[in-house]
Amino acid sequence: MPACTRAVFSLLLSALIMRLNILAFAIPLFVTFILLEYFIARKKKLDYFHLENSFANISIGIAERLLDVFTTGIFFFVYDFLHRHFAIFKISPSILLWVLLLICTDFVWYWYHRLAHEINLFWAVHVVHHQSDDFNYTVSARITVFQAIVRTGFWSILPILGFPPAMITSMLLVHGLYPFFIHTRLIGNLGILEYILVTPSHHRVHHASNEEYLDKNYGDVFIIWDKLFGTFKKEEPGKAIAYGLTKPLNSYSFLWQHFHFIIEIYIAVRKADSWKEKLKIIFGKPDHIDPTIRDTAEKIFLSNKRRMPQEEKLNRYVIWQLGITLITLFVFILFEKNIDGFLQLTFALIVLITLTNCGAIMEQKKWIVYLEYARLCITVIAITYLYPNVWVFFIALWAVVLLVSYFKSLQTHYLQLVYRSY
User: Fold this and answer.
1) Given this model, what pLDDT does residue 407 score?
2) Which of 28, 38, 99, 323 is deepest in the core (most CB within 10 A)?
């Protein structure tokens, strides 16, 4: 290849790489480790994975990764605004200041995490992370965009201290990577590291619903904060750990997992007699809310719930939907800088409908057919937007007419195909 051709090719390749979002590669990285953990646990005959839990976990992770595309820029803008207008010190990057930023970031995380367990308003967005009865790498995916918004509020102290926004966002990427690897039951005691870092052993305690383990080990990278502030608890060898909430959710609904505690707070506030009691509910501890309110909320929003037989709980259709969604999400994030806003929005809507659909299928809801229609309609709109051709428009219109005309018949066949029991 001539030198000039190589130079042009190199420039084109560099330009392409600059237009790619390399954060997309976090998806195949995490999936690889999840599969590795699964096969190791299976080889050792350890019952650490239950597919219905795993897919519920992954669904929530997909939503968070997707919505990050739209919110990351907003978070950076907040840090930049605070740094430009309110910074106390002028900090320039150096090795020592990177270390200081890591320590400050982890310290702020400790207090965010602790308050997320002690204040209902914050627990409402953090509870999603603790709903799974399993404890494996898929659980680390249970982070919502609402939780990211609350954390941004806490981390806003960092630009005010003087840390540059680019430095903060870089650190948060590294700081957010570490917790993934502590969500596992395969790794035992790590010796001297147990005294310094948050290890899988420490984090197993944090996710336990055993009474003696509740509200312990809030650290993210360093365990020293828990030891300083009296929230440390060592994992007791040989003691069986029950994971999840003290009152299990017993639902795989994507929407219910996100909003159930907000609904419970709302019901509790309406029942309260005085403003003092209402404020105590909102800003008090989760155990101040009557646990029977969950039953009331479930009767309203999860009525006529049917469960699949155990052997059919996970429909193959759910597996295919999530698999395709993961692949397309990787491509979407990788090329998101090259995709216009309208197509980004339509893709986001399709993914969110798909995740709601998957959760509803595991709950055997009949209304999933409406989600299928909504997804098809949005897809048709996206196709006609991409190919503004009169023939494409009429074909799409004719397809919509047929779908509406034969709705009842298609609904019956669809439910029989998906559930095999209608």
Assistant:
1) 82
2) 38
Buried (b) or exposed (e) across 96-122, using 16+ Cβ within 10 A?
Answer: ebeeebeebbbbbbbebbbbbbbbbeb
| Six token digits for residue 178 | 């570490």
Residues 218-238 pLDDT 10s: 999 999 999 999 999 999 988
For residue 92, which of 172, 161, 160, 163 has the smallest C-alpha distance?
Answer: 163
CA pair distance 304, 58, nearest whole angstrom:
26
Write the CB contacts of 178 (distance below 8 Å, at least 6 apart in sequence). Answer: 220, 221
Q: Which of 206, 306, 210 is nearest to 251 (CA)?
A: 306
pLDDT digits (tens, 9 = 90+) for 149-184: 999 999 999 999 999 999 999 998 888 899 999 999
Task: List, in sequence order, every residue forming a beta bridge with 222; answer none if it has no partner.
Answer: 197
Could you give the CA distance from residue 292 to residue 138 in angstroms, rounded to a whole number?
29
pLDDT at residue 203 greater than cutoff 50: yes
CA distance readout (Å), 312 to 84, 214, 300, 309, 318: 56, 34, 26, 5, 11
Structure tokens at 45: 């005959």
As a whole number of angstroms, the distance between CA 49 and CA 132 comes to 11
Q: Which amino acid is at 112?
A: Y
Element (H, E) at 56: helix 51-86
In sequence order, which ranges of 211-315 are alpha helices (DSSP H)?
224-228, 254-271, 275-283, 292-301
What string of H, E and C letters represents the secondary structure of 151-211?
A: HHHHHCHHHHHCCCHHHHHHHHHHHHHHHHHHCCCCCCCCHHHHHCECCHHHHHHHHECCH
Q: Work out the angle between the directed axes of helices 51-86 and 316-334 (0-180°, nearest 10).
A: 30
Residue 262 φ/ψ, nearest 5 degrees: -60, -40
Intra-chain end-to-end CA distance of the chain, in Å: 64
Please tell me the distance from the alpha carbon of residue 58 to that of residue 139, in angstroms, as a whole number: 8
What radius of gyration do the chain's Cα atoms show? Answer: 24
Give the residue from 337, 357, 339, 356 showing the smallest Cα distance to 347. 339
Cα(218)–Cα(114) distance, integer angstroms? 6
* Dihedral angle computed from the Cα positions of residues 91, 92, 97 and 102, in that order, rounded to the nearest 10 degrees: 80
Left if phi > 0, otherwise alpha if psi is -120 to 50, otherwise beta: which for 244? left
Cβ within 8 Å of residue 415, ≥6 positions away: 366, 369, 422
Exposure string for 21-56, b = 16+ CB within 10 A, e = fewer: eeebebbeebbeebeebbeebeeeeeebbbebbbbb
Structure tokens at 27: 């998806």
Q: Of 214, 26, 220, 204, whose CA–CA distance to 108 is shortest?
A: 220
